[in-house]
């Protein structure tokens, strides 16, 4: 018995990738990689901005809490023009400067906090005051100034 083996077809020379196909696939890969890298950079940028904004917001709320913690005794006849907390009637402005350390770079950013306490109501029952805290801070990546604001009211009894 004679066994005949079937000859396996040799690959043709034209079955390989062409230069155009290789260039197109590399271009598509480059665009996909560029999109992923851009998304990663934007995510890091937003995360850093959010962390700084949250830290500044905590400083803003801290100044409001300190002002609200003032002594609000029941109105005593302290005389005209004096609120129960001892502050004069009108608008009082207090300016704080704090340092904020940027986590990624370790550089220090200055935060200026302006606290305004304004008398809204002069009648003895109730005394009403507005507390407004504005914190101005600089974001170094975009070279932009931002302001975080908190406004609250306080009334005496």
Helical content stands at: 25-40%
Low-confidence runs of at least 5 consecutive residues: none
Task: State which percent range the strand residues make up.
Answer: 25-35%
The number of helical segments is 1
Number of DSSP E strands: 4
- Reading the helices and strands in chain order gives HEEEE
Shape, principal axes of CA atoms: rod-shaped
* Domain unit count: 1
Q: On the 0-100 scale, what is the average pLDDT?
A: 81
Assign the structural class, choosing from mainly alpha, mainly beta, alpha/beta, alpha+beta, or little secondary structure.
Answer: alpha+beta
Radius of gyration, CA atoms, in whole angstroms = 33 Å
End-to-end Cα distance, whole Å, is 116 Å
Report on the biggest sheet.
Answer: 4 strands, antiparallel
Order of adjacent strands in the largest pleated sheet: 1-2-3-4
Question: How would you characterize the overall build of this protein?
Answer:
There is one protein chain. The N and C termini lie far apart (116 Å). This protein has one helix at residues 19-68; strands at 91-101, 108-121, 128-139, 144-155. 32% of the residues lie in helices and 31% in strands. The chain is an alpha+beta fold. Strand 3 and strand 4 (144-155) form a beta hairpin. The model has no long low-confidence stretch (mean pLDDT 81). A four-stranded antiparallel β-sheet has the order 1-2-3-4, covered by helices on one side. The radius of gyration is 33 Å and the shape is rod-shaped. The chain has one domain (16-155).
């Amino acid at each position: 018995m004679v066994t005949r083996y079937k000859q396996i077809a040799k690959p043709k020379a034209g079955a390989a990738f062409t230069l155009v196909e290789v260039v197109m696939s590399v271009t598509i890969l480059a665009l996909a990689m560029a999109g992923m890298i851009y998304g990663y950079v934007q995510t890091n940028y937003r995360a850093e901005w959010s962390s700084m904004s949250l830290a500044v917001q905590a400083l803003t709320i801290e100044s409001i809490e300190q002002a609200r913690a003032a002594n609000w005794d029941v109105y005593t006849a302290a005389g005209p023009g004096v609120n129960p907390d001892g502050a004069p009637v009108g608008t009082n402005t207090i300016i704080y400067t704090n340092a904020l350390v940027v986590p990624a770079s370790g550089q220090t950013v200055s935060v200026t906090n302006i606290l305004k306490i304004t008398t809204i109501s002069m009648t003895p029952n109730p005394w009403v005051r507005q507390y407004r805290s504005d914190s101005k801070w600089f974001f170094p990546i975009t070279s932009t100034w931002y302001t975080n604001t908190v406004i609250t009211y306080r009334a005496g009894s």
